[in-house]
Amino acid sequence: MASQDTVVDAITTGQAGTPADDVTIRTGKVDTARVETSALSAGYFVIKGTADDQVEAPALIGDVVTGLLVHRDNRERALRSDTADPYAVNEKVGQAIDGVYWAYNEGAVVKGTQVYVRYVAGAGGSTIGIARADVDTASASAQNATFHTSNSASGICQIRLHFEQV
Questions:
Q1: Which partner for 91 in 43, 87, 109, 112 could form a disulfide, CB atoms 3.0-4.6 Å apart?
Q2: What CATH number has the domain bearing residue 94?
Q3: Please, what is the average pLDDT of the chain?
Q4: What are the Cα distances from residue 89, in Å, to 54, 135, 166?
């Protein structure tokens, strides 16, 4: 009979747009909306769209981020990759507004520091809605979120969201 040698009690890397801890799974807050524009993927930040029930990618320095697009694992999406096949226009999505979630980051980030969200391409990258550690020559703006883990390069990290007051 086989035996189990090790028990993993903490996930070291999650999937972008999913809760990163048990507390968020139980108490994290998620609003629902519909995608106004195409090319929105889980694990990236969004802003309010034209209508109150819509979200879209940030595009201007004054845009106020309203949440992080959450991953929805259902039969329709079971075999699709979020980055290769984004949520479609008018598709219903969830945007996390409070809690700790896995999200994509651009460049190195440090736990406990301010999250900046890219709204236009800049010297450090071109992925709109991605989290980063600085303004990247005025192409990213500070948001109501902090890095919950460090990452030495671009990839995926945990971010604590504080968007309830927005």
A1: 87
A2: 2.40.300.10
A3: 86
A4: 10, 29, 24
